[in-house]
Design goal:
Length: 358
Amino acid sequence: MTAERRREVLSSASIDLDERSREIFRRIVETYLDTGEPLGSRTLSRLLPMTLSPASVRNVMADLEALGLVFSPHTSAGRLPTQRGLRFFVDAMLEIGDLNADERARIESQVGGSGRTFEGVLTEASQMLSGLSRGAGVVITHTSDLRLKHIEFVRLDPARALAVLVGTDGSVENRLVSLPAGLPSSALVEAANYLNAHIRGRTLSEAKGELERVSVAEQEELDGLTRRVVETGLAVWSEAGDGRPGTLIVRGRANLIGDLKAEDDLERIRLLFDDLEQKRDLIQLLGLAESGDGVRIFIGSENKLFSLSGSSLVVSPYRDTDNRIVGVVGVIGPTRLNYARIVPVVDYTARLVSRIMG
């Protein structure tokens, strides 16, 4: 657990509410998560299992407001939870169940259907997460973790070629490679043959390391221009996943604009879409996922990613056969996500994807 996360939990744990305050706070949060609307004292007094007048409820709401857990959006309105209030609710009061056998079977049939490439599995996972939430399903994976089966070069013009990378899982990636001046087409064939003799079953970074270990004598068997294609090409490919965004799959973006209530909400979603298009900070998200096992929940400005000042992110990492974290699955949506429903779905989907990778 990171120091920042420990501070969040300790901050939540330091809030001590009596039974009456907890019940009133819980009703305010659950109403917000269900409808997005503030809850007033008169309505609250009728919902509570104990007998309290609207005036007594208002006094408790004032105490909750002093603690920074709720706020009033405008004069004479009911109360809504603050970001701190939502964090306290998630940490201290959220009841998360488990998926039943039918729910697990539905996820497995949609995500893990036979005959799919791994990229197809990730796309279906994103689509499924979108369908089960009010938000958008998101999947992020390092492209550099593709295990290679075959490489082929297709010349586009004298200075560029398309490198076609075929993975052991059947997925295909295309990347542009700059060519040395005067390179004959036969050199591309020679470079592809040389690479295919050394890279099968390896990731790009592993293949680069393997070629660096090849003896100088064997390297010298290659023509000088061909060697430059091999060296510069692999350097470009392996660096593409080193501190830079990998593959991003997002499904269900329309869900994010389905119930906007204000112009600032629309602007928030527009910024989110812009950031998603630019794949901004995806590697940072992978790093956050690596800092703890299981599902992570980021609420509002806790999350510095994607300009998500008014949104929440529920993510869980998935792993490869060596138990390395290689990607993230999750849901992006409004702060009033159905956390109790989404957390177990995200958790099970991440474990399923890890199992399929194995």
